[in-house]
Amino acid sequence: MGAKEMIEEGLYLVQNDPRHDLNVSFRCRLISSFDEADGDAGRRQRVRLGALGVRKVLPTWESLFPDDQTARRALELADDLLAGSVLATIAEKEMGALWTRCDDLSWKHPDKQSVVMVGYGAIQVIREALSERHFGCENVNSQSTDRDVGPYDHDSAFCAAIAYSGGATWGKGSDPQKRLEFWTWWLNYAVPAAMDNA
Fold first, then answer.
1. Is the CB of residue 91 less than 8 Å from the CB of residue 81?
2. How confident is the model at residue 197 (pLDDT cuts 50, 70, 90)?
3. What is the span of the domain harbouring residue 169?
4. Domain count for the chain
5. Which terminal Cβ of the chain has fewer Cβ within 10 Å, N or C?
6. Spatial distance between the Cα atoms of 51 and 116, rounded to a whole number of angstroms
7. How far is CA 185 from CA 114, 130, 189, 190, in A?
8. What is the Cα gyration radius of the chain?
9. Cα separation, 79 vs 96, whole angstroms
10. What is the mean pLDDT of the chain?
11. In sequence order, which residues have a C-beta less than 8 Å from that of residue 66 and are 6 or more positions away?
12. pLDDT at 171
């Protein structure tokens, strides 16, 4: 299945889902398809796709945490990995510290979990840069939901969708129309942009 057909399938799925969610099994198929590209192009596409989603919701983070550079630093670190200007071992260590920072923010701001997801999403962009192939899909099947995925294995788009819509699909404050808006943008803009700029 080509990229255009996958995007059309995704748009159909998200429009017809009652909560306007783009399920994890589809996202795994789509993001993993980038790894079919030659050489390091797939990794670059995955990182670009992750970064585009996070950048869309970055203003949410910066309005609540204006002095906290965690999310921006994570995106910079992913770029540094692709550029070869930082060793993977150093990046992994810093990634752990950034994750701990997000855990601390999550603990201190229990009513702002959706905003903290911006930081987690940015950290997952680092994971894409470190990974030979898209991660977190090993145990995902067609019946899987995001609740079946471990907290360390959620893709950055999942985190960004939560930030954009105000919560996960199972959360009370989550807005299905905002989720539809995010996934429609992601499919129509972010996915093609990531593929064109590997």
1. yes
2. low
3. 3-196
4. 1
5. N
6. 16
7. 19, 26, 5, 7
8. 16
9. 17
10. 94
11. none
12. 85
SS3 content of the chain, % helix, strand, coil (to 5): 70, 0, 30
Residue 136 — left, alpha, or beta (φ > 0 → left; ψ -120 to 50 → alpha)? left
- Furthest-apart CA pair in the chain: how many Å? 45
Q: For residue 72, give the 3-state DSSP assignment.
A: helix
H/E element holding 62?
helix 41-64
- Poorest-pLDDT segment among 18-22, 69-73, 133-137: 133-137
Cα separation, 56 vs 53, in Å, equals 5
Kindly state the average pLDDT of the residues 75-94.
97
Per the CB < 8 A criterion, the answer to whether 107 and 100 are in contact is no
Residue 159 near residue 118, CB atoms below 8 Å: yes
Please say whether the beta carbons of 103 and 117 come within 8 A.
no
Q: Is the pLDDT of residue 168 over 80?
A: yes
**Measuring CA to CA, which residue among 126, 134, 56 is closest to residue 98?**
126
One-character DSSP codes across 113-129:
HHHHHHHHHHHHHHHHH
Q: How many C-beta atoms surround the C-beta of residue 14 within 10 A?
A: 22
Q: What is the mean pLDDT of residues 40-55?
A: 96
